[in-house]
Amino acid sequence: MASGVVNIRRDVDDKFYRYRMPILNTKIEGKGNGIKTVVPNMSDVARALSRPPTYTTKFFGCELGAQTSFDEKNDRYIVNGAHNAERLRELLDVFIDKFVLCRSCKNPETELVILKSGRNEDIIRDCKACGERTGVDMRHKLTTFILKNPPVKVKKGKGKNTGDAADGVGGGSNSPQNGDDEADANGAESDDELTKKIKAEAAELNTDAALDKEDWSADTSPEAVKQRIKALEGSMASTVLGGDDDGSDEDANSPYAQLGRWIDEERDHQEPKGFAVAIYKKAEDLGIEKKHKSLLVIVQALFTDDIMVTSEKHQKSLLGGIERFVGLVHPDLVTAVPKILMELYQIDVLDEELVTQWGTHVSKKYVDKEISKRVRKASEPFLKWLQEADDDDEEDD
């Protein structure tokens, strides 16, 4: 059985493409006239597409001329007959093109909306990325099923499933969970105060030493390098606290994808001590030096201790970048997660309370749920060490 994740648009060959989904798996059961194809991870795939799993299953039935059945309570989605997994994956691509991707910008961040005009009903894709509303082909048999089983849109802030694909709400597998949104919202005011404080301190720094790349090669003594890193930290911290525009990294040509590709291409040609400055300047050229999502891309493309983390939101993005780095790009490094977390904790990049919460709450914000579980499972030795250290402190008191 195949495992892993792929780009929702399989024609996009970019590891920094934001929208991803699990690889569709199949299982043949029964024999003779009772043979059937079960899709064990249909609900996970559909969730990544922000569509109910009944829609994708019914679409397969329409295209293959086969009966379908759903047992949503037990999470079983069946297409009668024996069907090759690769064939169903090809049909899934067709479904994505017809009922998910925006016809204008080809972004999967859409939701289906039913418009009524007299006796007529039309289904449109409402794109949350570009704002366009584009219709679907109402001649397809699936549209009859959708009209009879319209997507349910849950109001924001009501329950944990807001934005869940089973409810037909747009957002994709990378949409933020409510908990993260609330935490970011609650921390907005403190971030503003912190920004003022950091900017005031940064203004006192020697501006000639802050971001002058030529000076980095003048004196390579440990003390000089330490002072320049401190200067760079002050400059970056004063600008990197800004928010991110939703959907701004939706395609292969986004500034985030460009930054990731640039780091990949340049890291072997840059002087290590000056590369942090070069990365910052590249992000500045792309207009994303104020965006915390830049941290996620940097960690995924190049794990480095020059990353400056100045707020809770940044810590979450840093941990999200680690999930993508070890979960998607270098899965052989999953066992090294405790060491990575320990290093970041010991240099005060990660707070104990936040990393403990991260380790005990699986999230689909950055990676597939199964990958998220695997990374957090690997972090257990570090989390156990944190707990034991706290217990020892309490005993000493």
UniProtKB/TrEMBL annotation:
This is W2 domain-containing protein. Belongs to the eIF-2-beta/eIF-5 family. Residues 153-192 are annotated as: Disordered. The keyword Ion transport does not apply. GO terms for molecular function: eukaryotic initiation factor eIF2 binding; GDP-dissociation inhibitor activity; GTP binding; translation initiation factor activity. It comes from Sphagnurus paluster. One of its GO terms (biological process) is formation of cytoplasmic translation initiation complex. One of its GO terms (cellular component) is cytosol. PROSITE patterns: W2.
